[in-house]
Write a structure and sequence with these properties.
204 residues, mainly alpha, 2 domains, 7 helices, elongated
Length: 204
C-alpha cells in the first residue's frame, strides 16, 4: 500500500471518529438542555413531554425489532434453501443405491468412486450447513457402515435428522418409514429386524 493510500485511510478513520464523538456530544447537549427544561417546566408539561418521548422511543424500538426479525427470517430462509439443495443431492444418491435391487426402477447405482467423491463433498457441506443432529446421525451412519451393521436403520435416522433440520416434522412417522418408501417390498425392513433379533437370541 502506498504512502498516499495510507494517509487517506488514516484521514477517513479520523473523520469517522470525529463524526462519532461529535454526534455523541450533540446528543449529550440536547439531553442536558431537555433535562433543564423539564426541571423548570410545570409537572403537566413535563409529563406530556416524557409521555411523547416514551411513545417515540417505543415506536422506534418496535420498528427496529420488527426489521431485525424480518432480516433474521430472510437469513434463515436463505440457509434453509441451501440446506435443501445439499440434502436433496444426498437423498438422490441414496435412492440410487437403494434402488439397485429393484428391477422395476431404471436408476443406476453410483460407482464406488462416484460414491466416495460425493460423500467427501457431502461431509464438507454438512460441517458448514448441517445441524448438530445431522452431523451426529452422519457419523453414526459411517460407524455402522464400517462395522457392517444395519445400515438402513442408520439411514432412516439420518433422514429424520435432515427433515428436522429443514423445518419438517417427523411426528406420526413410525420407525424406518422413510427408508421403507424406497424398498420394493416395505416389509423387508421388518423381516430383517426379526431375523437380526432371532440371531441375537441364538448367539447368547
Amino acid at each position: 500500500m502506498s504512502k498516499t493510500s495510507k494517509f487517506w485511510q488514516f484521514v477517513s478513520v479520523l473523520f469517522g471518529l470525529v463524526l462519532i464523538f461529535g454526534a455523541g456530544y450533540l446528543l449529550w447537549l440536547v439531553a442536558a438542555r431537555l433535562l433543564t427544561f423539564l426541571e423548570s417546566a410545570n409537572s403537566s408539561v413535563s409529563a406530556a413531554i416524557v409521555g411523547a418521548m416514551a411513545t417515540v422511543l417505543v415506536g422506534v424500538g418496535g420498528a427496529l425489532y420488527t426489521q431485525s426479525q424480518i432480516k433474521k427470517r430472510e437469513i434463515e430462509e436463505a440457509h434453509r434453501s441451501r440446506k435443501v439443495e445439499i440434502y436433496k443431492d444426498f437423498l438422490d444418491i441414496a435412492a440410487r443405491m437403494m434402488a439397485e435391487g429393484n428391477e422395476n426402477v431404471s436408476l443406476k447405482p453410483p460407482s464406488q468412486q462416484e460414491l466416495v467423491d460425493f460423500m467427501v463433498g457431502f461431509k464438507t457441506n454438512v460441517v458448514l450447513w448441517g445441524s448438530p443432529k445431522v452431523i451426529n446421525a452422519q457419523l453414526n451412519f459411517q460407524k455402522i457402515s464400517s462395522d457392517g451393521g444395519h445400515v438402513l436403520k442408520a439411514v432412516d435416522e439420518l433422514y429424520k435428522a435432515i427433515r428436522e433440520d429443514i423445518g419438517l416434522s417427523n411426528k406420526g412417522l413410525d420407525r424406518h418409514q422413510l427408508v421403507k418408501m424406497y424398498l420394493s417390498n416395505p416389509d423387508e425392513m421388518d423381516e430383517m429386524s426379526a431375523s437380526n433379533k432371532a440371531l441375537q437370541r441364538t448367539s447368547r
